[in-house]
Write a structure and sequence with these properties.
Butyryl-CoA Dehydrogenase, subunit A, domain 3; Nuclear Transport Factor 2, Chain: A; about 45% helix; about 15% strand; elongated
Length: about 300
Amino acid sequence: MLWDQIYIEYKPMMFGLAYRMLGSAADAEDIVQDVFSQFVQMDRGEVLNEKAYLAKMTTNRCINLLKSSRRQRETYTGPWLPEPMPDYDMIKRSDPAERRENIGYAYLVLLQRLTPLERAVYIAKDTLGLEYHEISEMLGKTEISCRKTFSRAKEKMGRHSEGPVGEGTRTEQQERFVEAFLRASDMGNFKPLLSFLKEEVTLLSDGGGKVKAAINPILGMERVRAFFEGLSAKGSFREGFEPVSVNGEPGVLLKREGRVSMVITAEWEPDLSRISRIFLVVNPDKLQLFNQNSPGTAL
């Protein structure tokens, strides 16, 4: 297989693996490029299984990056949330190597509960479908150790596992929530949203210390309502929200002076009846994919 064919064949898998591991599309892209740069310089005869080898290289690079950035995560201002991805980023990519699968945002948030090693084993088993002997070889651990690590990771993830995400999995309830949110933000009255929320709903806001955001989680539907109505009263929503598909799921975005400044998406109960968590991303570093074609944005 030629190098360009290998790139087209395996880059989507590698990007998806790195994005799940890191929660950052920008870092995932860097990892993939670094791995391929090293791979093209290798003796092809040394590699028996290209997919397994590339997965191994990608995973180990991600683990090293997570370990080196641990202190940065620990001192991060407020909650750390993954970088969301707009679906139109995927649609505009005509290069086959740039095709990307939808990875549910709430699933990415849940992966942050896991240690780097737990994350690597869990993704290898749950997403890539590798056998324990393959994971053992990939990570340099015993099969017994990998089994125990996966068991711990699965317990931390609870009943949440990765399922298909996209147009076919959307529900009428999710679409109604987006419509209700758009009306509420226009009117400045968020009371109608309460019917979509669990009583103990939690709102997490990620500004990264770069823009104003709630440093602590906001707990309970009435406090969440007060939070949105307070921002609305200050004129924060005057340019109006727009519907957007975030990681394959319905969400909303807010623009300021033509650039996306806020993205909101939600985690629903397994039966999709109510929202258990709301994720609000305003850190500009995590909204770059939404602003790729905005005025003043370097491409």
